[in-house]
Hints:
The complex is a heterodimer of chains A (561) and B (423).
Chain A: H1 13-16, H2 18-24, E1 33-36, H3 42-49, E2 52-55, H4 56-79, H5 81-93, H6 129-147, E3 153-155, H7 157-168, H8 172-188, H9 198-212, E4 217-224, E5 232-240, H10 244-253, E6 256-259, H11 269-274, E7 293-300, H12 317-333, E8 337-342, H13 345-358, H14 360-367, E9 369-372, H15 377-392, E10 397-402, H16 406-410, E11 420-424, H17 434-447, H18 451-467, E12 478-483, H19 490-493, H20 498-501, E13 511-512, H21 513-527, H22 545-560
Parallel strand pairs in A: 1-6, 7-12, 7-13, 8-10, 8-11, 9-10, 11-12
Antiparallel strand pairs in A: 2-5, 3-4, 4-5
Helix pairs in contact in A: 3-10, 4-5, 4-6, 4-9, 8-9, 12-14, 12-21
Chain B: H1 22-33, E1 43-44, E2 50-51, H2 54-72, E3 85-92, H3 106-124, E4 129-136, E5 139-147, H4 150-159, H5 169-180, E6 188-195, H6 206-215, E7 219-224, H7 230-239, E8 243-245, H8 249-257, E9 277-278, E10 281-282, E11 288-290, E12 297-299, E13 303-304, E14 311-312, E15 317-318, E16 325-326, H9 329-339, E17 346-347, H10 350-354, E18 381-383, E19 390-392, H11 393-403, H12 407-411
Helix pairs in contact in B: 2-11, 3-4, 3-8, 5-6
Amino acid sequence: MVQFANVVVYSYQYLLDPKVAGYISKEMQKESVVVFDEAHNIDNVCIEALSVSVRRQTLEGARRNLNKMRQEIEKFKATDAGRLRAEYNRLVEGLAQRGNLPFTDNWLSNPALPDDILKEAVPGNIRRAEHFLHVLRRLVQYLEGRLETDNVEKEGPVGFVASINTHAGIDQKTLKFCYDRLHSLMLTLEITDTDEFLHIQTICDFATLVGTYTRGFSIIIEPFDERMPHIPDPVLQLSCHDASLAIKPVFDRFQSVVITSGTLSPIDLYPRLLNFHPVVSRSFTMSLTRDCICPMVLTRGSDQLPVSTKFDMRSDLGVVRNYGRLLLEMASVVPDGIVCFFVSYSYMDGIVNSWNENGILKEIMQHKLVFIETQDVVETTLALDNYRKACDCGRGAIFFSVARGKVAEGIDFDRHYGRLVIMFGVPFQYTLSKILLARLEYLRDTFQIKEGDFLTFDALRQAAQCVGRVIRSKADYGMMIFADKRYSRHDKRSKLPGWILSHLRDAHLNLSTDMALHIAREFLRKMAQPYDRAGGSGRKTLLSQEDVEKMGDGILNEMQY
Amino acid sequence: MNNGNGRRLNGETEEDDDDEGSEGDLDAWERTYADERSWESLQEDESGLLRPVDNTTLYHAQYRRRIRSLSSQATTARIQKGLIRYLYIVVDLSRAAAEMDYRPSRMAVVAKHVEAFIREFFDQNPLSQLGLVTIKDGIAHCLTDLGGSPESHVKALMGKLECSGESSLQNALDLVHGYLNQIPSYGHREVLILYSALSTCDPGDILETIQKCKKSKMRCSVIGISAEIFICKHLCQETGGSYSVAMDESHFKELILEHAPPPPAIAEFAIANLIKMGFPQRAAESSIAICSCHKEAKVGGGYTCPRCKARVCELPTECRICGLTLISSPHLARSYHHLFPIVPFDEVSPSVLNDPHNRLPRSCFGCQQSFPNPGNKPSLRVACPKCKQHFCLDCDIYIHESLHNCPGCESFRHSKSPIATEE
């Protein structure tokens, strides 16, 4: 079907994740134009496509799968030994999959990238099915041993492969072919229930990736989650740090690739992260007939105490109270819907609890109903639905959400569903996570990007993404409040996208709650006045076809001289 | 990327940030927040003496009103308008009405302007009737029934100015809907809601109520005092009314007075009917009769209903005994001019004024005051497109807003060609 379509719309993984791309995007022609929309998180998507995480359940499941496969092999040996021999012969000749695979087509569904797959015959020690299963069993045993450590361990792929070789006797080339071999074995055994065999596939993904790449990856073993030290939850993570690996085949294969987003800022960081040289790099401002956005940076409460979600200030009662009063005052002035973003689930829980104890939450609920996002998808969907109903019928509602959650990524709060968005704090990632630290070190060593810069960039990209939920058309209007004292610093503020910065006047910086209230009242009244949508007063913003043609002729005339 | 600030991870402490450039912003935000800076509008003339402030502001006010009247009478076509209006004013007395962004409080300002509106309404629509409803504590009360006497409405409103509790739009709409359903079909049903709250706390589904109002042909308009609310906008869009939000007190007055002239009738709702009306005669000065509105004997002037001969004190009114609408001919005449609006006058451009070949009248046709010499200022005279007479700005406003007749056209009604004045 793909060959007949003119336009194909699907998610990033279908093009970036090598495992899936081989199936789905095999038939895309070279002359296609690839557009990555909302691509501000593209580096994270690339990294996740090449990362694997292994837990105890994975290893136990893998053992079960291996047993099952051994039984299948025994069964086949008894009934149809010819098939296994045919597979063996094929592997000797280097055709890893059933049927002829022309070597010019690089899109094999292998977790490693096409250029890195060896086009050789499969090594001798895994050609026979039983031998292959023995190898896998030794690998699983080795991984189980590694998981029983009490300390956090971090290794590069080369060292890890070397230790696998010493302890389990599996060399690098064997590891590289694991995925192919497993795939071919599953085809031969005619296993259709691939969900059940997910665990052993994960192990083989892991093995192939670790065997293929020597740079840009780290293996991190954590015996427990940092935030809950008494619950043992060992996990072995192969995390990719280099976002350019996954996207390189796309750049090589397709003629035009466009990366676009409303919050792609700062724009010069992306070519460095993805390791490419952009032919055109442009940033456009929004053409609006009236100032329909009112961003504000609020740094203190009415009592002039600074507010922030900095780690050491989080439990400060003054800050909690100031945030609560900010929300209360805004709820009494802004009609219809308000959206609030917090930096994490735990922070949101804590502060809502404090507000409840203080009685601020009850006062807020007198003005508007309150809905909250949880980690459960069904609950959140229900909350969103009721939130919209409350806004529609005039009761007014507030939605509490988290900056890196599902709602912030996908849900729009346009028109009356979002008249005000408050970003409580700066949404930094959990900076003590080992993976993040490893990635920061890699970025510093390879790209000379400072850790602080990268963290700030990531936090502000997330904040911009959250506040951008509120404006979805030119006739829409909304206010945005960045409630943290750190936003008034130039290094943070300058990383916001241009369309927010162009509306962020100096008079709206460093506000306190009552000043913000005054600005909000005036803005809402001004925006409620009727206005001319087509922009008849000044520059035209809605161009008709003649206007566009005239513009084209004008440019043509210029080019002639 | 590297702006030389030194790298800081989130966990480390940062030094205190200084206020960047906040001193320079003091003037700006102070100016925005302070309402009264009247000394800034004083100006000096050439010799250094203070010019009285009134001139420019008055001129601008006049000009603005002209422009407004021009835009509101966009077509001079004869639009059918509802002359017999049954209007309910819903005043929101919830806790939001006690806010003090309008001085002394929103409630007081609203009441003052509603009083002015009531008088203006009966002035322009003598055949219509008005009622008052308030929303308090989530319940809608009917303050006065539909009636034609401005005094009783104003007195009832001023006596009941306390606010508390929530506001409920649905309850108000239900109440008004119940009352307006009972009026005869030739009347135009209208509701004007003055809404200060930001939300509505309803017992049921307000969207259903809106559909009910739409079906009963009620035209609901809302004037918001705080901000734009979606449900009010939806209500106005569905029922064909107008939604506006007031920016300040004077704007609110303008908005509410815009509802005094009759709105255009919606085509399928306006059924042409023959309506029975009575034109009572004034009784003699010495006659004694029992008045039907006061229920006591009165001497002297009153009107006698032509059908049932009951005595009423004032016109226009509805006879209490037989229900006949009683009016007098000046009342009808006052409603008539809404149907035949006067065309907006054209500005006389300065180029025409400066051209020495034109024989221009030296004084305004309406008030006979001479025009100042034309200079570079924008022109201070206008001309009627039909009779081509020149008028000054004051006469222009007076003719369009009060007189509703052009003196030039009335004077030369019988002549075929107007006085030849080149444009």
